[in-house]
Every structure is written in structure tokens, then in C-alpha cells.
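Q: What structure does this chain adopt?
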Amino acid sequence: MKFCDRKILFFMLAIAIAAGFAACSKTADTIGFDLDANGSALRGYDAVAYFAVNSAVKGDAKYQYVWNGAKWFFSREENMNRFKADPEAFAPQFGGYCSYAVSEGYTANGDPEAWKVVDGKLYLNYSPKVKEMWEREQNDRIEKGNKNWQGFKTKKPEHKG
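A:
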């Protein structure tokens, strides 16, 4: 094999390896957040308000921040600043998808009005009725949801609404 042919072969091998690494890193982002048509997380509700005032509060467009590819809205500048300082502390579990659905192995949209904070973490459900079902087996549902969510990072789940 000529020196020139070896260089080309080496170059092609390097590109193939780099492409493989890029593909592997993309699989972690398979699921993401439950976003509305405008790319907003929590349908525009204030993620910090669930913790600060124990209520679902609509955000204001003048207080918005983009994090992890989603627009996050806040009712007050203070809440936006708290989120910016530690978004993981306020972002909903399971990307804001319905916690019951995730525990069952699929996704469904989360309703910002059907929520609960458990052990300092925000969980949404599809509806108030589904939230009641989720609460009956809450600890088990959270455990199953955590396991399934990890699997969703490498294999996109079915979405049922």
C-alpha cells in the first residue's frame, strides 16, 4: 500500500471514529423536554413558583430564559434569576412529561396544573385525574419513572398524547 493510500485510509478511519462518537453523544438527547408549539417548557408556567409559592403560576414573556433548548418563563425577575443560578433544582422531572406515563414506559404531555413537589422535585401529570392515580402509588411510580427515563435517553419512547 502506498504512503498516500495509507494517509487517505487513516483520514477516513478518523472520520468514521469521530462520527461514531458524535452519534453516541446525540443518543443522550433523544427525549428532551415536553415543549409546546412555541418551544416553551411547562406551557409557559413559572418553574420556580411551584417551590416559592406552592402554586402553578403563569410566566410573563418579559422574564424568559432559554435553557437546554427550551424557553422558560417566569412571573418575576427574582424567580428567573433563581432558575438561572440552578436550573436543575427547578426543572420538572422527566422533562415535564406526565410522570404516570413515564412510569408506564411511554410519554404523554404534562399538565402544569396537575403537579406535585416530592422530595424537592417537581412532577407533572397528564391531568388532575391521572395525578390522583399516580399519587396512589407515588413512590413506586417515581422509581419506575426514573428507571424508564434513563432508558428513554437511548431509545425514544412512544408518545401517546
